[in-house]
Amino acid sequence: MVYLTLLTFFGLSFQFINSEHTDIILLGSTGDLAQKYLWQGFFNLYEKHSSDHHTFTFYGCGRSPKHSATEKLNKILDKNVICEKKNCVDQKKKFVSLVSYFQLASEIDFKNLGQLLKNSRSVTKYEAITVIFYLSIPPEFYTRTAENIHKFCYSVEENINFRIVFEKPFGYDTNSAIQLQTNLEKYFKEDEIYRIDHYLGKSVVREILPFRFVRQLNPEIEKLLNNKHVERIEVVLKETVDCKGRFSYYNNNGVIRDVLQNHLMEVLLLVTMELEENGVKIPQQKQNLLKNIETPLSVLIGQYEDYLDQSNDEAPDLAEFVPTFAAALLSIESPKWHGVPIIFVSGKSLNERTSYARVIFKNNIFCVSNCPNMNQNQQIIFHIGHGGLPSPMILVSKYFKTVEFPQGFNTEHNLEIKKQIYGKDFSEFFSAVPINDIDAYSSLIQDAFNGRKESFIDGSHLVDSWKIWEDILKYSTERIPRIYENGDEHNVLDFKIFGSSLEYVKNIEKEDASDSFSPNSFLGRKLVTAESETLYKALATDIVSKISQQNTQKFHIAFSGGKSPIRLFQILAALLSDVSLNHVHIWQVDERCVSRESEDSNFHHLLKNFLSNGHISIPDDNIHPMPVSQIKRNCDLESKGNTIYEQSIKNHIANKQFDYIVLGLGADGHTASLFPNEPTLSLKSYVAMTWKSVFRMTLTLPVINRAKQISVLVTGKAKRKILKTLEKSDPGSGLPILRVNPTDGEMTWYIDSNALSLTLN
Ligand code: BG6
What we know:
It comes from Lottia gigantea (Giant owl limpet). By secondary structure, this protein is an alpha/beta fold. It folds into 3 domains: 3-167, NAD(P)-binding Rossmann-like Domain (Rossmann fold, 3-Layer(aba) Sandwich); 201-362 and 373-484, Dihydrodipicolinate Reductase, domain 2; 514-752, Rossmann fold (3-Layer(aba) Sandwich). 34% of the residues lie in helices and 24% in strands. It contains 24 helices and 33 strands. α23 (720-728) links the parallel β32 and β33 (746-752). The termini are far apart. The protein binds 6-O-phosphono-beta-D-glucopyranose.
């Protein structure tokens, strides 16, 4: 309780002003992060700083009503706040008595909270008050919440230090990061905003700069941190966990946004930035370095094999090419670092959990006599956690004669590690472990409380750090990731640096071809099957050969939408570049009623990946997008956009017979935008409107089945189930793909090995 002393003297009352108070308001107080780390962090803060002169109040907030949430919150505090020190049970009791739940579901709630905070300040006068709002909520609510906090709970009184803490992600790409920054700046000053990257709170990461700063003691080492001496730098975060429980977040982000753009980049900055010098402060040095980091020269991506199936169960609207593994080759274009390969690696469902940054030095000394260290590269390793070591640690090869470790690190740790570590015996390293290995969130909560902004992400860095990844992010959503088994048992992710690119060591295409049994028909029709990249090439080659067989006679081809054909478009664009395509007409099988700029627009992908490739020469009049872009006019039933498209088909195509149609297959058996058991399946017209999450336009069975060639493209593990169902189903069932039966034409299945394997079991 607040320390208040009332003295009565000659009948007058004096109130001694108590010194300091902190209000902590946690939004998302019963969420995962709060349960695992934040409440413990607040308790540690309370234990360390509460006194008669410094009081605390904690508000756990959320959208749920008070009654049910209070019960949940109490349980969390009871179970998850652990007493580590002796005699802390009483402290915990006091702490819990200072926590109360406050519902924040509407503007009025924010107003009431603001009033409550104000009232509590008017009862007792403090010399200084710190107010920390900690937002552990989904990022889509950041702006609106910030606005409400500013409107109702923000105060500019002199003795109030206001802080607002955000969790990553800070944006989704450069533009959204700028947007978020602009929105936050409307309400708060930069020095009030604390953006958390919890890697900056890890005990070893916190000590990277202090380790380098003791350079008067480590002069040898600091002198060697440059391209003359460093062979390469690796920053790695490997995990054994998969993405269960997080698909709605992960499908939209993938490993590059989740980890490489932030955690790994922050660690790299600390290892390679210039130290504070000649008055240039750390944040400025970081920014200078960020501006010199180029878009990665090369990136490899992978996806663990169960990803699509797991995601399908949890968040069915999946994004197929989400990378769960990435390796990136970066470079810093500064005189100091030019030419040093920097490798980032991170992935889920790998064989071990470990994270580290290591600097590997060149070994360019030819030793002639007495050479115990022959062929050994010297290293400095910031071992952040897990892996083969029992504790976070800094390791330095003993080649360096002496090493000084920062205060707070202990070299007398008596840890005996028998196995090889980072390719060497443990005894070949100097090593030091943190004396207090405090959890990252607890450290950062202390830093936010103490106003130590250097442990947080600076707003001005965000845009530069997103820019580095912009091109890669575009590319990665359209590339098929390499599929790896959980734990990468067969080492398919091993890669090598080859000049300025990374290459997987194993060529799994060849293995697939030789090892696997490939049937040549599926449901009585021709089947082509291979690893996905080969499969796309086979389909593209078939299309190109049919186009050239037609000579100058008109060739009408319709492409269906979705993500699967994107890679096909790219390969086609390469095969057809600089070929005259005056006789080729491009049509759409289906389209969503969204604007052409939207990522959901099928035409958008066709345009971006095929038609707008500068080397494709198709006359504009030969391109026939479905008329959906002016949503109001053509997509509502009355304006009859479908009839316009049907008329266009009849006008242009002799016999109304497409030469080629590329179809896809949905996990529910849909094809084009014809969904199971829908009336559109029995329509006689050629083009129909339908609805599935949005309005769509689609070709119907009568025109599809007239085509000369239909190819059905099926890729990815998520399609295994439906392929199995198709094998067992009656053609008369309501599954649209089973109604595809060209009357005079050919039909071929193109199924990749990931999708097909279950049907063979
Ligand atoms: C988080 C990512 O920021 O960091 C997670 O969102 C990842 O996907 C985690 O698992 C890794 O953190 P740590 O502390 O477990 O290494």
